[in-house]
Amino acid sequence: MPGQSGRPGTGSRRPTVKDVAAAAGVGVMTVSYTFNQPSRVAEATRHRVLEAAERLGYRRPDSTARALRSGRTGQLGVVLGEHLSYAFDDPQAAQFLAGVAEVCVEEGLGMVLIPTRGDAGDVDRVLAAAVDAYVLWTTSDDDPVLPAVAGSGRPAAIQGGPEHPGITAVSPDDRQAAAALAGAVLEDGRTPVVLSFPLDRTREPSLVPARELPSDIPFPVTRNRLAGYRDALGERWSDTLVAVVAQNHRLQGRNAIEDVLERLSGSSPVILAMSDELALGAREAAGDDAVVTGWDASVKALEAGIVSVTNPLREQGRLCAQAALGPGTGPAPTITWEIADPRRG
Q1: Among 55, 60, 271, 290, which is 20 to 30 Å from 70 by CA?
Q2: Could you tell me where in the chain the CATH 3.40.50.2300 domains are found?
Q3: Which residues of 258-294 are buried (b: 16+ CB within 10 A; e: fewer)?
Q4: How far apart are CA 108 and CA 201, in angstroms?
Q5: Predicted TM-score (pTM) of this structure
């Protein structure tokens, strides 16, 4: 007859999942699992279903239409308040994303990276993403993305804070760790210097005494680590130089410490850097005579003799993903830390 292709189940209508099931001698759910959750179907059965679908000319359901029907996209969104390349260039960000990715693989989900730029389009960009849940990289208290995500109806978790109602926060006690780290390396005759993350969303680099720091730093990681250093330094804090960088980059750490050394007139510093990347740059500038601390206890930092705080970012990535995909916000997981001091052998 005109209009028929001669293939079973074709002609004036498209073949359906029921046609495939009948041709393969299986149930409709087995066909659905074959296309959507193939690990649940025996290999021989899966091949039989796929062969029947090919023979009938059956086309897999459109993913967009399926998402509209089910209300699920099978995607986990990761919101980064950094340039997208940061996710691949920064070793610690890569560790965090690897932890998120592990959970996505286990759950059969895709991962969507959503960079924000600090502009008026951030909220629309994040909410427009076709994702089932969000994981957020640490951001600022005043980031409008936080209330938007919390009000989206999609579950979310954030690494490093800030805490926000409706979003599970996954973070170690940075203030306590910073105080312990500084206390472990302060020595008589050495001048303490802090190598800091940005103080606000403008990300302006600066070099100021600690007494001139703003009282309302919106980034919780920066705020808490500064508070911990202050706790350890006590009366010495007021005159401590704080070198602020725009980004967590080794070259920026080196350049900032070179500027500091010009002011110190030859005195030997104790450099309290907020990351191993910054600490490695500081080591290049100050040499082996300086005492340098970092954060994350990376292999490169420890090999360079940098005293560092363990900060298991891969684990935090896993915990954030699990919290976002779990039944609710619940209590925040506890993240443990230690001081890794390669000077002790």
Answers
A1: 55
A2: 75-171+314-334, 174-310
A3: eebbeeeeeeebbbbbbbbbbbbbbbbbbeeebbbbb
A4: 35
A5: 0.80
Token readout for 118 is 């600090």
8 A C-beta contact, residue 325 and residue 107: yes
| pLDDT tens profile 55-74 | 988 876 554 455 545 557 88
In angstroms, the Cα distances linking 338 to 178, 184, 300, 307, 314 are 11, 12, 17, 11, 16
d(CA 41, CA 30): 7
For the domain made up of 75-171+314-334, give the CATH fold: Rossmann fold (3.40.50)
Burial class (CB in 10 A: 0-12, 13-18, 19+), 336: exposed
d(CA 263, CA 269): 11
pLDDT in tens, 26-57: 998 898 888 767 778 898 998 898 899 889 88
CATH C-level class of 174-310: alpha beta
Alpha-helical runs (H) found in 57-131: 63-70, 86-89, 91-107, 122-128
The residues of the chain that CATH labels 1.10.260 are 17-61
